[in-house]
Amino acid sequence: MECSDVTAATAFEDLGENVSHNVLSHFHLAELDSIRQVSKFMESACNTRKEFIHGKLNERKSVEIMGLTSERGKQINGRLAVVTGPINNGRYPLKIQHLTGEIERVSLKAQNINPFLKPEQEAKEKSRLDFINYSSDAKVREGHGRLLDQVLMTLRYAVNVMNGCTFFEGGWESFMRLPRSHQGVMMSNTQVFSLYRVKPSSAGYKVTGDQPILDSTVQSLIDFEDNAINYFGKMAAYEKDGRGGKLIIRNFVRAMESWDTERIFGEFWIARICKSGTVVVQKKGPEFGEPELGSVFLVKGIGSQVGEQVPKSQMPILTRTTFLPLYDMLVYDGLMIMDNRFPMTPALKERIHKHVEKAIREETLIYCGESARKGLWNEDPPEHDTSDSRKAKEEDEEEEAIPYEPTSSQLRLAEKIMKFAKDKKYQGRKEGQAVLVVRKIDFSKEENPNNIVGMNWLYPNQSFNGYDMDYFFFKKWPGYTLDELLPELLKKLKKMNEIPGLFWICEKSLVKPLKDTLKAAGGKLAYNETLHVEWYPPPSAEEEAYHSM
User: How far, in Å, CA of 47 to CA of 41, rounded?
Assistant: First the structure.
């Protein structure tokens, strides 16, 4: 010990003696005897408590790790572990089971172990173990996998039908037999979430029933629910599906309701395959140059493990795919494109390895959707909200909505448009009429810094490369206003010298105001024909990525 350390220690002892003397000088002999007795009692109580804690640790149950100060130690503070043996050299052996199913063993002092868990900690641990033990490998159970594949293929087929069988000319059964790598499947898949909740008629398509692809797929599940339960449910044999799998279809319907908002699309490095899923790292940052490492996900495969065909020596490897929430898990959509733009350098490989290790030990892996994290699957799914009832509800809400009241300048411009339609003797929408598409050239300020909107005049069966394209500019984000749109519509109509069968606009908030304004203008002119206005949804991330390849 250094001289300065000895001096400091001596000074501290002197200070303690002085404090004790000053405090105790206020007590008489009887009180001092009482204090001595209390001190002996506290010493005995502390020893008893220590024995009790060591006894709890020897029960070899779940405990909480706490108070570690090293860099690696901090990563597991707060994690639960199981005591696996008696104390040895002042330390207890512990087993940590990571979400990946991997086991890590550590030895810690009793002061870094808390055996008294709260009920919410025990509940969370049960949920973790349910996830880890859901299946014996990194795939969903066979029944879930087969049903998931059928649902996804049905959605893709519905897209194909909405597009007039553009991607594949054949029936549903023929489409279902296609390999998942078939161009028709891949192309249909890019538009699933562009058209997920859009009625075919409002998107310029004509399909019997006029249901969004989500509703038509849900309806197909409900129509064959008994057969599906007998086949898929019993094969899945999962606790959350209820006895005999009677809840499996309701569970899938509930999961599908969140796919368009909670799906995760992007580029990911497949880092490694573990017992309970494949670990992937999201690529962030610029398209080229030094990549940034984003969130770490734990994803289950369908028929095979994600990355199963990739030799271990080639991992990490960059891919492009979509992850979907299903129960308390994430699954991929069955389609994956390998991306070789980023060579795997030793430095990048080491960065990814450390990034993954940190996420596993700190348990910051993302392995389920946002709804699951909020407790969606803690209760049984509700009864089916059928497409018919949903459609009726939407129509009721639309009828009850308060009409938009246009400004005087908006009404004047709308009157000019309606007068032009009247002069052209427009008599409603008919097959073969043109469609006027009004769509921003990109949907973010970064990608569309000049605030450009395209106006494309199309006839049926013509490509979107454009029959006649014009542009206009809007002033500020998030997009163009009704005051900016109306004069541009009037100019376009006069240029083309006709009225389209559909005004198809990408600003959803302007659909009803434009409809109401044109209707009010027509009323002033005693002209009762309807100019049809519908929402043109922006492309999904999958669709944008496909067309940028």
Answer: 10
User: Among 535, 503, 506, which Cα is nearest to 439's?
Assistant: 506
Structure tokens at 215: 């509703």
Share of the chain above pLDDT 90, in %: 47
Contact 260, 212 (CB under 8 A): no
Quote the CA–CA distance of 287 and 289 in Å, as a whole number: 7
CA distance 450 to 360: 43
Q: Regarding beta strands 435-440 and 502-505, do their DSSP bridges make them parallel or antiparallel, or are they unpaired? A: parallel
- Backbone region of residue 117 per phi and psi (left: phi > 0; alpha: psi in -120 to 50; beta: other values): beta
The answer on pLDDT for 405 being more than 90 is yes
pLDDT tens across 274-298, in order?
Answer: 999 999 999 988 777 788 999 999 9
Pure H helices in 257-386 = 259-262, 346-362, 370-373
Which is it for the CA torsion 179, 184, 188, 190, positive or negative?
positive
**CA 245, CA 329: separation in Å to the nearest integer?**
18
Report residue 360 as tokens.
């596993």
Closest CA to 272 of 323, 326, 308, 322: 308
Handedness of CA 34, 40, 46, 51 (dihedral sign): negative
Question: pLDDT tens digit string along 129-165?
Answer: 888 888 888 999 999 999 999 999 999 998 888 877 7
Instruction: Report angle CA 142, 143, 146 to the nearest 5 degrees.
Output: 85
The total of other beta-carbon atoms located within 10 Å of residue 188's CB is 26
Rounded to 5 degrees, what are φ and ψ at 349? -60, -40
